[in-house]
From TrEMBL, chains A, B:
Signal peptide: none annotated. This is Kynurenine formamidase. GO terms for biological process: L-tryptophan catabolic process to kynurenine. InterPro entries: KFase/CYL, KFase_sf, TAT_signal. PANTHER family: CYCLASE-LIKE PROTEIN 2. GO terms for molecular function: arylformamidase activity. It comes from the Bacteria. It comes from Pseudorhizobium flavum. Pfam families: Cyclase.
Amino acid sequence: MCNHCVIENVKQNMLSRRSLFKGAAFAGAAAMVATTTPREVLAQPASKVFDLTHAYDSTFPTFDGNPGIEYEWAVEFAQNGYQLHKLTIFEHTGTHIDAPFHFSADGTSVDQIEPEKLVAPLVIVDITDRAREEANTAVEAADIEAWISANGDIPTGAVVALRSGWATKVKEASFRNDAEGNFAFPGFGKSATDLLLTLDVAAIGVDTLSLDPGNSADFAVHNSWLPAGRYGIEALANLEELPVKGATIMVGAPKHRGGTGGPARVLALI
Amino acid sequence: MCNHCVIENVKQNMLSRRSLFKGAAFAGAAAMVATTTPREVLAQPASKVFDLTHAYDSTFPTFDGNPGIEYEWAVEFAQNGYQLHKLTIFEHTGTHIDAPFHFSADGTSVDQIEPEKLVAPLVIVDITDRAREEANTAVEAADIEAWISANGDIPTGAVVALRSGWATKVKEASFRNDAEGNFAFPGFGKSATDLLLTLDVAAIGVDTLSLDPGNSADFAVHNSWLPAGRYGIEALANLEELPVKGATIMVGAPKHRGGTGGPARVLALI
């Protein structure tokens, strides 16, 4: 099916399910489906905290290949009885946020992302098997449709993350490159994010170095998703431990004024 | 009452309440009181996200008076179609974490704080009225006892924060200093943190520049609480919007390896 057709199909199906639920016989179910807000997700019993954040230092892989963080002691324990570092950090380092301002001259900066968009139902689209065969595979609109067919509508305000298995090889060269030294990792395809732009989705997330696949020539997802005012999360960890539906993600985005993004602490609860 | 007596009194009262609840007639209540974990708190309906984090830049007040963050463009939008900063950050800047490693040569670094300690019931001890009269007032053991008398036991794994009203004047000189230019702001007294060290409390938090009050000569709380393996949160915002009991705090501590702390995104849910 063409990408445009998939998007129309998903929208029609969601609309028709919602009209159906508006019938009196389905009033209870309607409330459940149509108003699944992040806060209602949290109202479910939660029993465990998951850490979706890589610990990072100057050896952590970066897109441009340069160290993303460097440390210098500003105060030393031996002389002062306490200690602290002066850090040099490139914003797009470690598990981190891409704010709209990263790819737009006047978009929302990282401190301006509404707090309500930082606590959200987490949708995981698993492409691990495909990624094992083709490093640069992308989540496309058909994958989103398949997720909806299997799991129901994307919850309101969700963060939609792809799970490719890449996080488990963060210390290997193949996290970033293929054997020839070219970028090679999974990402989102524009057909998927074009579909997600028609829905109330706060952010997309990846367990790789970039929202776009490694072989992207045009950064089509960065160049459309971020300028549309949505944000992204790159280099997520531990998605393997979570179900594809039912977790709540808590995105500890940094709050320095005018930031294009930055290292974040990302947790999830089930 | 002497501080030691207050601590003993609180412990005895908590123990006797728990023995009482172990009686068969109180089995249900016992389960509720004795096992109020952070996860169970989250199981309550949550309706709103609160942002306990100040947005910050190089003008944000710091303990040493020097800018805590500086920005430089590493990639500029006009030339590249995207942009990102190189940041210089002193770890103890903005709303931030004090890890045990900040005040101990070999304590837990910020990346090593267990994720389970980052999602917790939030206890707020309000000293706003007193702080208005005496800037360097401290939360003492008696304040903790008074909170327990009014609200019940401190929940297991809690973050205990003082609310002094200081966050609302973060842009004024009086956030940091008195008219003579001396440090002047509320903090925790060691009698309070000595009591909290006997309980399962993950962290303390303040809406001021330091865990210790501004006029502290010896940083007694930093020097005892942090080396004991507990962490702190400084410069919290918006505690005024929360009840003294019932909120859940989510502490987005940074995860750079070997850090003594760092800017954090702190949210709360009710």
